């Protein structure tokens, strides 16, 4: 896994890079501040972010939020030298997958990486399911609208209008929603002519 490291303490940063390598991961960086981490993330597209919370220019949480807003959302592990409930709540609100306190133990780091990657994968799967459900709802709306247009323009029952949509979709090898969208787009042709 390619892990972007952002830590403003040079010795800690180098230790993190070495730990990551010893665990079989590719370390990117280290970045010395949040702004540099954002730039590195844009340039390298890592698989995971390992960010210190308190850094100059831009803290780790703000960097993670900014990257997510730009479409560079990845699993995020934050590290900090202080235990602070407010910070934990802020980390959760920022979409952080795992939280470690210094000094970082190699076993804890490996566990956090596995946990962060798993949570991120679950989140992506949920997002995809929501997107599919939203598309199904939009498809259903367009089919219902096309059915209504066919019913009123051709004096069909709801069942007959739906059958006509299905038959056209089958004959033209199109999705039902695509046929319905074409009917809705061309609804002026179905309107009764005025004398």
Explain this structure.
62% of the residues lie in helices and 13% in strands. It contains 8 helices and 5 strands, in the order E-H-E-H-E-H-E-H-E-H-H-H-H. The protein has helices at residues 10-22, 34-44, 60-69, 85-93, 106-154, 158-172, 176-185, 187-190, and strands at residues 2-6, 26-31, 48-52, 76-80, 98-101. It has a 5-stranded parallel sheet with strand order 2-1-3-4-5, with helices on both faces. Strand 3 (48-52), helix 3 and strand 4 (76-80) form a beta-alpha-beta unit. Helix 5 (106-154) packs across helix 6 (158-172) and helix 6 crosses helix 7 (176-185). It is elongated, with a radius of gyration of 26 Å. It starts with a strand and ends in a 5-residue tail after the last helix.
Q: What is the CA-atom radius of gyration, in angstroms?
A: 26 Å
Number of strands: 5
The DSSP helix count reads 8
- Report helical residue fraction: 55-70%
Sheet of most strands: 5 strands, parallel
User: Which regions have little confidence, pLDDT < 50, spanning 5+ residues?
Assistant: none
What is the straight-line distance between the termini? 71 Å
Global shape = elongated
Output the helix-strand order: EHEHEHEHEHHHH
